[in-house]
Amino acid sequence: MKPGPPGSWDGEVTANPRIYQVNGQFINLYTGYSAHGTFWGIGKAISRDLMTWHPIRENPLIHSGERGSWNHANIDGVCLFRRFTGDWCLFYEGRKLFNTFTTQSFGFSTCPDHNLALWTPCPHNPVFCPTQQPGDFDAIGLLAPVIYRISSKYWMFYSGFDGEKMRTGLAFSSDLLEWNRYTGNPILDTGPPGSWDSHGAILINLFQVDGIFFGFYEGMDIDGFLAVGLACSTDLLHWEKVSIDPVLTNGESGCFDEKKVCSPYNWIHNGRLYVFYGAHPVGERPGYTGLATGELAEWARNARTCVDEISLSKS
Description:
By secondary structure, the protein is an all-beta fold. The protein has no helices and 22 strands. Strands 1, 2, 3, 4, 5 and 6 form a six-stranded antiparallel beta sheet that branches. Strands 18-17-16-15-22 form a five-stranded antiparallel beta sheet, with no helix packed on it.
């Protein structure tokens, strides 16, 4: 996907894709912004084949808030899932100040039906905030919430910023309002000095092959170049990187993804793995959505994208 026409709400960026299948149709909930990043929104595009996408006319579904609000400066990194009550929930990042991760927190909106058209913000937003405690991995800002129903609780994978690096952590809730951070955070750490992921390791969504969970993650080096790595876990609490090298890297000079390949989101369909990603040639603007795909290896034929609910049963 490319940015919309000049002057449109997504005229500068259409990136950070999140892929789902609702009511028999593939949808992409993506981040868009224009006017030099002063208006942010979440758009919806539809597809029948995962290759060609058509934004809907009603976009954006939700957008950044009014001056002084908790999400005035941006709205990004969405996660769609069904609550235990059966309605739809859209979790997302928001921040009050421009050009800084400081104050970046999480909130959510709800929708009663699968049309995903009318969203009501939670009156308690933001519901999950940085700790503001020096030394915590998530002291300054938060990114990329991904939520699953596991047993009777919501498990939220998210990334925290401490002023220097971004790492992945985990938190638990029974109502989406009160959250308890996992005492073993961060669950996915950055690489050693000089490595391609020395300053960022942001786990996005998961897929499962029998009893093993895998997750693509966004890695960042000291110069801000982004690429994609792969990590695995058997219990969702302890993660190991599959390789010391990235599995998806930025493109050549002049390509649409020359500097940044970020926000990798997997979808498995008909024996193929699709990895959608955000892409930037230079800086933050313009921003695109890219796709890498391939057939699953024989050992991964039973792979499936984790959606909504995960069972940790050993059977």
